[in-house]
Write a structure and sequence with these properties.
With 372 residues, this protein is of the alpha/beta class. 37% of the residues lie in helices and 13% in strands.
Amino acid sequence: MSVSPHEIRSPFSERPMLVFWETTKACLLACRHCRAAAQPNPLPGQLDSQEGMRLLRSIRAFGDPAPVIVFTGGDLVLRDDIFDLIAEADRLGLHVAAAPAATPLLDRPMLQRLKDAGVQSVSLSLDAPGPVHDGIRGVPGTYELTLEATRAALAVGLKVQINTVVMRSTVDTLPEIASLMLREGVPIWEVFFLIVTGRAGEEDALSPSEQDDVCHFLLDASRYDMLVRTVEAPFVRRVLREREAGKVGGPLHTRLREDLERRAGPPGHPVRMGTRGTLDGDGILFVAHDGTISPGGFLPLELGNVRRDDLVAVYREHPLLQKIRRREFAGRCGSCDYRGVCGGSRARAFATHGDAFASDPACPLVVADAVQ
């Protein structure tokens, strides 16, 4: 029997797991899928140093366990005060992560400075080999710079996470990226399923069945010596349960799995994937460069602004976030037996339908309902 949405209880009702702070819009790259539509210079209205310090204290006010603060952008190293802000976050006892851009600025001395200031982990984007990656990021040489930054970050003792965007031009190279990570000793792979927003176009997106096949492949990849996570693909947990019940992937899954095994040999672990993940607004909170609070970076619904609103109260009490955490969605996502562990991408629903509570169009179950 289906569970009423009101019976679903989120483990993140009191505090988010991750708070992303878009410290600046400034960035030297021009990525095709960029959510921020980043540009070379900061936009007016960016939070200043004192406002940033207040934001960090408000994040710490969530209590223990404290959320992870992710300094992102744009490119965070383009802020003159970034090391002071990181040091304050570290002093407050926050786990500090950084998501810098792979530009000539991100050399080993810069990574050492980030670590010395208090950064514990960095995420770097690596979408595909060589020219394909450079084409996505908009600047020649970015692939090699990313490899150099990865090795330098590991050398100075930072935990490194590689982020990869799944899109039409990158999907067939996923096994190559996974095997590269294994060779380099990168412990975490976060795979982002494209939201058609910002600079991304419909032609970049995979079909629902292809995205399910990618989920099957990522479950296989989790059997190697790295932690695999997804972004905007909560349906990976539905795929996991279907797979446990005997369902198999399609031809894309087979091709990707066989390619990875040729490159990395047979896996040595059982499937390792969490039983419940986060959604935008459910374990995730995003603060834009100007202080605007949103459920997530790809779900641009304004919940308030840190310049005038209490961040803790907004997260715990805003009706929109409470509704997300109760899984009160429309259509298949609202009635699905998997909604407690999945819930569908709220950002993709919003980007497609203009409604954060609509069903996720990337799910084959939603598509099957639509054609009946």
